[in-house]
Amino acid sequence: MTLQPNSSAAPSGHRILIAMAEHLELPRPGRLMLTAGWNLAESLGIPVAGYFAGAALGGRDAGMIAATAVVWLTVIGRKVLTRSVPGLLTISALVLTLQTAVVLITGSVLFFLLQFPLANLGLCVLFARTAPTRKPLVAQLAAEVVALRHPSHHLGLHRFFQGATWLWAGIFALSTLGLAAAMALEPVKAFMLLTTAVTLGGIVAGTGASALWFFRVLRRHGLRVRFAVG
Known about the structure:
This protein is mainly alpha-helical. The protein has one domain. The protein is 79% helix and 3% strand. It is built from 8 helices and 2 strands. The protein has helices spanning 9-21, 29-58, 60-82, 87-106, 109-130, 137-145, 155-185, 188-221; strands at residues 24-26, 225-227. Helix 2 runs parallel beside helix 4 (87-106) and helix 5 (109-130) runs antiparallel to helix 7. The radius of gyration is 22 Å and the shape is globular. The chain starts with 8 loop residues before the first helix and ends with a strand.
């Protein structure tokens, strides 16, 4: 008697092996903190330090120029040394350039305030532009800021990254409308407080919603996140 191989079991076993092989990987905690910290420092910390240094020496306009110059020097340094520029650094450079141009060209308080809704509008366009593409911005930021590695061919994850990118585009669109309305209705001090509240609130809400959505996608597709070995 000859035993025939179970033809249905082989594909099933193959699918199980593929599912086991498909996972998401983060660097070890120490490396993860270093990677995220460095990305945030060069994209946010260095420009802020440049602004305060310039403002201390020559006022608000000098601070804006210094921040923009520092971030573009960082972009050039990155390009020369690594031949690539992180998305978060690019966003920081573009937004600062827009804000500085508005401040220097107009020189008025009204247009100084206009930089905040314009910056949010620019971020909205940037996220929306990449959302329907093969490289949505959220996927790029996840890979750069926290060094997340994931199956590039996984349709469920790709749809999540596209949807999350649309989510952030919507958050920045709402922030733009809210700040534009506040600028027209509120005095300067109240507007600045509202700008801070809207910015932080949008970031917290977007991050929380994205995280919940992300883990729901992982559960639905049987994926898991693990730390890199070694």
